[in-house]
Amino acid sequence: MPLYRIREAAELLGVSDDTLRRWVDAGRLSVEADAAGRQVVDGTELARLATEVAGATERPTPRPILVESARNRFVGLVTRVVRDTVMAQVDVQAGPHRLVSLMSREAADDLGLEPGVLAIASVKSTHVVIEKPEQP
Question: Which residues contact 107 (CB under 8 A, 6 or more apart)?
């Protein structure tokens, strides 16, 4: 497992070196000495603390959207959600339009997407493919 010096560990957690040292003194994080005698943090231990710190951080409440840059917004119903261990395919029926979105499973779970849920599919793309049908 990788080892991180105090300065590196503090930077990864977004705190000062002093804060990290206080956490070590309080027993929130354990350190060991590397071959040169410097204090280092085990990567597994640092990952555990990073998750703990992120979970304890209060998320700001999102404000209502005033203006949206995406021009194509389709209001519809989720008709199908196919999840695997990492990704999810979400089908939305918006009037005559069927839209399919691929997203992380975590995002689909966080949004509570299931068949019958009202959703807005917001489409913004830098590439639009145009096809020309055969003329009769």
Answer: 88
CA 42 → CA 13, 65, 109, distances in Å? 14, 42, 31
DSSP string covering 31-59: -EE-TTS-EEEEHHHHHHHHHHHHHHSPP
pLDDT in tens, 2-34: 899 999 999 988 899 999 999 999 999 999 999
- Count CB atoms within 10 A of the CB of residue 77: 13
Check: CB of residue 49 under 8 Å from CB of residue 29.
yes
Tell me which residue has tokens 């055969």: 134
Helix, strand or coil, per DSSP, at residue 8: helix
Distance between CA 8 and CA 80 in Å, rounded?
44
